[in-house]
Amino acid sequence: MPSSIPFPKKKVARAIARDELAILERTYPAAVTALTFSNPFELLIAVILSAQCTDARVNMTTPTLFARYPDARALGAADVSDVEKIVKSCGFFRMKAKNIVAAARDLAEKHGGQVPRDRESLEALAGVGRKTANVVMSVAFEEAAFAVDTHVFRVSHRLGLTLGTTPRQVETDVTALVPREKWRHAHHWLILHGREICKAPTPLCGRCPVAEICPSAPIVAKALASKSKAKKKPTGRSAPAGPGAKAAAARPPARSTSAKPKR
Predict the structure, then answer these.
(1) CATH number of 40-140
(2) Radius of gyration over alpha carbons of the chain, in Å?
(3) Which of 12, 73, 138, 151 could be cross-linked to 108 through a Cys-Cys bond (beta carbons 3.0 to 4.6 Å apart)?
């Protein structure tokens, strides 16, 4: 299925949006980050590595990384080329290696080796933008923050929670629908729903607990029906004739044995 299934053109009513989110909360009550970490430093580095990469791949990479560089001081003093070899499978490995070494160095030199809790200090670190800062704040420190990644962006649009064209606009729209104390949980509801059901490019609406009130369900059904109809539609062209058929067509018709000879 192509990835061009359109998003709804209108936001759903506030009451429906809250019902959708309540269903997701009941469906994914224990949703947490899929990244493996044991402290804020490890989470920060893992989130930086997860850009354009799966959490599963990051989880396969970080044990080796943290075994060699267990804290900010060690990673901040690392040779970037050595780090590149470890994180190569995460994609964009040169930039990521450079960023995590620089971020770790700043943690060691400016924050006593500890990850800061405030947004301004986090976003001043190399490789850390608003999304990464929100993840660290909400997961490591349980602060009220809502990160928007590709799953959250897609699912929020499909549910009609937002028409925002940027992650910041989506963040503003969704957090207006959720109590502040649940912002950090809502991020995980939407991510897990995006991974399990509301997938790209084709959502599994037949399994979706929100399908009855979701504005995208009829849009997806229509797109799937159009695709199915296009597959069944005959092309109107006959199969090309083979050389044998062409030769037979070129021969004159055989004379009937029962025809009377001309006089």
Answers:
(1) 1.10.340.30
(2) 29
(3) 73
